[in-house]
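Fresh eyes needed here. Kindly weigh in on this sequence plus structure tokens:
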Amino acid sequence: MTSLVGDIVERKSGSTSSNAPPSRPTGTNTTGFPLVQHRSQSAFSRARQAAQRNPPTTSVPRINPVASTTGNSKPQPPPSDDIQSLQGQISEENERRVAAMSPQEREQEIDSVKEHLGVGIEDMIRKMQEARKRRRLKQELEDSTHSHGPRTCSGATKQILTCTLDKRPSSPLPDFRDKDPAEPSLESIDIESHIPTSPTQPPVHQASLKSAVAIKRLGPPEADHPDRPSSTPPRMRKLRFADPKPSDIHVYESAPSSPRRVMGLLPLPDERDQAGPSSNVVQLPTLPFSSLRRRVPQPQESQESPSGSSNDNSDGTPEHIRAQYFPEAPSDDPSLAWIRDVPSSVVSFSSGQPEEPRFDLQGRTLSAEDASALPTHLGLHHHSNPSQLAGYTLADLLHLSRSTVPSQRSTMLTVLSRILRRERLSEDVFKKIFAVGLEASQVGTNLNVCTSGVELLWSALVKSASPAEESTLKSIPTESLISLFAEHLSSQVLPRTSLLQILETLLKLVTLSPDLCASVLSIPQLLPLIVRVFLPPPTGNDGPSAEVNALRLFHQLARSSRANAEKLSETADAALRFLVIIPDTSSAQLLAAETLTFYSILGRYGLYAHIAATANAHISKLGNNLLVQLQNGVHSPSLEYLAEAWLHLLECWVVCAIDPHQTSPPHEILWTQISNWEWGETILELLLVSSSRLGVVWTAACRALSAWVDGAAVNSPRNGEQERTLVYEKLRHAISDGDIQDALQEDVNSLMISLRDTGRDSLSLAEERSFDRLSATLKLVLSTHPPIGSDTETQTALDLPITFTSMQALADLIVDASSIIPSPRTAAFLQVQTRLRRRLRRESDMEWLSFAMTLPTSVPLGEEEFIAWLFDQIAILLTKDLASALSIPTPPDMWDGKGIETLLPFLVESLYPSEIRLAPFFPTPKSLKFTSTQCNSPSLSARIVSLPAPRSWPLWPLDHLLRSGTSQVFRKLPPSWDASETDVVRASLVLCLVSQKLVKSKMPRSEAMFGCMKIFMLEHEQPNDASTSEVYRDKSVESSMRLLLNPYTWANRHDISEHSDDLSLEDAAKAYLGASTPFYQFYSDFLALYDAISFGHDLFGTLLLGPISQRYPRDYRKLLIGDHRHVLRYIRTEPGQVLSGDLSAYLYPVETNGESISLFLGALTLNAGLSGLEGFLRLIAVHHVSCNIWPDLRHHSGSKQGQDDQDAKEQERARRLLGLVSSQARAAVVRDVVRYRQMGPEVDVLLSPDCFDAPNEVVEQRRAWLRSIDSNLAERLNDHFSVPSV
């Protein structure tokens, strides 16, 4: 380009002296200080005003170079005439040089211009030329108008205004784009046509070409709108850019969507177009748009050299970027590693997924292909290794979530929240993410970061793909979390959405762990904060609305404990605001329903019942409104939910009024008030209205009406005969209606079908509603029966809506279905139908007793009051005649006293092992005062082990006898109770035997064994008093124990098939011993007691054999066979008397421990001159010793030592063991060891004498094997090989 333009040389300044002192600033006041410049004026306005005050000189002929500058003076811009003269001079000079060029030189110069200014410079210069001509012509017209007045434009002028340019004749330039022929080319554009020339100006050189173009770009301001005020100073040029068409812009599908604008990106060049880029596409000059997707170099492609240099110097390559922007840096400079391509080995994956999961900003997992090929504009590339992969790993996100840049930290926290909602993460990763969220949500952090941190905590606990459980809370600081939430609620700096997330997270925390409710309520002013923030009074403006979750949080806090409910009752008045106005919208009805439910929860503790009188007008008005809407056919879900809550609340208050002494404080509500408010009549009307649907309103109305009838039987005249008659007259036709009976019978049939399915441990929602409907209807029918012993003659009892047989069948199925865990709803049905069957008396006492004795094992916690009533009925029905009918021997004097009634104090006391009492499904007057919680959590069930009761519940009185010094039952016994310890044991065994006879599902063997062990342990730590004998030596007690254990012996293993050996003695003892006392300690005391007082009692000794099975730890065998070896000769239990269903459990796997083998060998050689081991113990010892000697037995036992008969070590061990037997044991024992045989653990155990008579071929094989390893020992045992065992 040196041939086109010349240098621009400055002219000499017109000033006479460059060192003249600066003149006084204009505009200063008399005080000497500068005038105040108001900031309301922009810099452009101030510059324009200054230009108007000091107009530029227009007579400067040329620009002279300035030798030096002083002070703050700035060079003044050249006059406009000089600029035009200079532009013309440069234009003429360029025209002359272009005319003198050859076509090759022109093409070279055009390529040089395109290289520096881009391929779109032609259109840009053309538009600049057109704009300049328009401005010049307009200026001429304005000057002419000011001089001669307005005149019209000629046709030529209009033609010029329309930018129809005359092409200047010149030699054509080569086409470098597919252009429209009508458009001017680069060769026809007059670049310097308006720059005035100077005769003294030297030629313009190549280095000043860009300056010339810049001058053209910064041309004079447009004069298209002279009347429009301009903030730019005069003579200010504007920077112009390309004007692409809509078709020139390509929008990538992967670009993130925005509600404000769509991201426009330049399109990809058409790879099929090899001639050149398309003319309708705007391209940037130096960036190669070969692909906007991340390009991963393939292994076969040439990579950079180790030094970092590359021979490829094309546009956009790392070497080109280095040469253009960092020319002085070496090619292998480490600081420029970021511009180089990463080798393909870093991003090559052997499988379809990266080594670590990578996620996009939406929390979605990226595949290996997407991670390596997604474009960089999506924001998924960062400086983490490998930096060329799109997406973030969890480690990257955890690292960036602690960034010091708030926006970056907030974004990463949001991504983590989305990942939690999408992916199931491990516990360790969950802990790290939760710690990040807790740190980010601290008070005082950046608002966006804190908001994202709260969202992360909310996602982790509420919306996580891995549902949070009670065990999850053990790994997080819940106390600190609750305190943090309280601080945020107090400050209210966070947005409303974050506050709602805090509320929902608090609700989730207390739902998972009721123990946290006390922590929530321990924070001062937290309850008023929740009320103020989330439960504002209803208003008609656009203020914040009340949140249902706040009331649900109150529900969970109140259910957790009575103490928490008492604290909440202090703020319960705030919820009345949702009952004052009749709710007419679904949201208002939902708030009112949750308020009523909150009062119902308090009412089940007997709390806050006085509000029934205080707000009676609103409560009654709400009930009447519900009745009217239901009568008009309105059955929206929110309305039915509100009606159900209203009926449940009335049920609780009616129960409170039955016995006002049970409320806290007493007499908060009275039965006379219930009668005056006429709640019974309203409930009855609601029941009739809902009879056509049999939905939740029917169920709630049946429950409330039955509570009202039961209360009338206690507090109204003639045992409530008038109320029962009213209900009977209103409902007898409805209950006997065919549609209702068909619907209820359909519930029974569907439940019987679904309960037969195995493999599930909970009820579905439909099954729960069916049980609720059946229980409530049957409870109403039961309440209409007059009390037992009343003298009423009026028919008031409603007919049974389902058949008696189907009711029995469903109850039996619930009890027998082992796959169904006892639930409150199944227990409610069992309770109602059991009471109803007892009241109707359509079956014999033995049939009812057979069913009733299965119920303690089939109901959950909370139904202790019902089970206590059941024990009373069992004690009444279990008489001497019934025991005789079952062939159960009983002592004659047992029935002279109270019989089974002697056990009632112990049985009832066992139902309440803790002060924590769970509320029953149906509230009762007695439960109001003693209920301590309404939440049955897994932790509560682990602490209270009363219900469901084990099948050995008839032996519960033995626990109190063993702990007579600490049991509270002995302090509560009535003065008339005078039974002895032996009487209690006799009655317990009789009750247990009756249960075993009547109940289909027998107690496990381990529970029966442990129950008898407790009878023997009654003598533990008792004084040696000759005047009293041991309880277990009582003939009735001993015979009952033998009768109880006889079905569990190996000889009778086929008589009882229902029990199993899955429950070990250690498991059976946990209910009594607790978690702090191991069964091994109990067994040690039991063994020591046998050594001290048993005198060889056979049943006592038989119970000792249970824990020495191979299924128990080796310590038990060491304790009996090693530490108490001297008592082994007294244990003469035969195999048929062993309390086991599988004798192979004592034989296999074969004992290989050296210490244990020594114990068995010592037991066989015990008292060699006297009688040694007898019975089953001898079989056990011979088996384990023989299996460690003979190869065929080791092979049958599956022992690893027997896999290689030639193993020298095992042969030596067997030889030494056999030598010890032959030298120390009696001859009979040696013969037993030599000729012992078993067929393996898969077949039945061979007993004596078959097990001591191996076939001759087996004996000969053993003799040959022994001769091969020790001929002397074989010769010494030759007689034992020949003579069979006697």
Observations:
- Residues 479 and 519 are 7 Å apart (CA to CA).
- The longest strand covers residues 358-359.
- The mean pLDDT is 80.
- The radius of gyration is 50 Å.
